[in-house]
Amino acid sequence: MFRNLLSRLLDPAPPAALSAQDAEVAIAALLVRIARADDHYGDAEKLRIDQVLARRRGLDTAAAAERRAAAEMIEAEAPDTVRFTRTIKERIDLADRHDVLGAMWEVAYADGQRSADEEALVRLVAGLLGINDRDSGLARQRALDGMGLSET
Predict the structure, then answer these.
(1) What is the distance, to the nearest Å, from the Cα of residue 148 to the centroid of all Cα atoms in its chain?
(2) Residue at 24 is within a domain
(3) What are residue 79's phi and psi, to 5 degrees?
């Protein structure tokens, strides 16, 4: 189903909008990349990605897990984060990118641990998505508050 998504994402032709389903898999691949940044991709992070995907598109648990599994394969084959993120930026509108950033912060903190690697990657991706530091910080705080976690 998502076999050609990576080739469509990396097509050098002028960017075309992605279907809603393909956009969600591409976004999920970014979430997987964030979760894997600290070399520990556990059940808490997988569950959080599933919850984000279910919430964003009203998916049931099985459909969200299926989409995450496709995203894991896409992420493993995706090029460097800079190129992959810029390609997504060109195909997803700004309002959705802000929502995606909040989801990235949720995934970064899903295991209840602060990881400098995950935080640094979220900050890098935020800039690549065209989101300024202030808005990224606000999204981070909303994610922490929503998860009942504190700054420390």
Answers:
(1) 21
(2) yes
(3) -70, -170
Helix, strand, coil tally for the chain in percent (to 5): 70, 0, 30
CATH number at 90 reads 1.10.3680.10
Q: Could you identify the residue written with the tokens 């997987």? A: 32
Q: Which residues contact 85 (CB under 8 A, 6 or more apart)?
A: 30, 124, 125, 128, 129
Half-sphere exposure in the Cβ direction for 28 (13 Å, CA): 33
Nearest to 118 by CA among 44, 35, 51: 35
3-state SS class at 90: coil
Asked if residue 79 belongs to a domain, the reply is: yes
Write the DSSP symbol of residue 18.
P
Query: 152 in a domain, yes or no?
Result: no
The phi-psi region of residue 39 (left if phi > 0; otherwise alpha if psi is between -120 and 50; otherwise beta) is left
Q: Which amino acid is at 124?
A: L
- How many structural domains compose the chain? 1
Domain that holds residue 96: 5-10+19-146
In tens, the pLDDT along 77-119 reads: 887 888 778 878 887 888 889 999 999 999 999 998 889 999 9
Is the whole model's pTM more than 0.70, yes or no? yes
CB atoms within 10 A of CB 91: 15
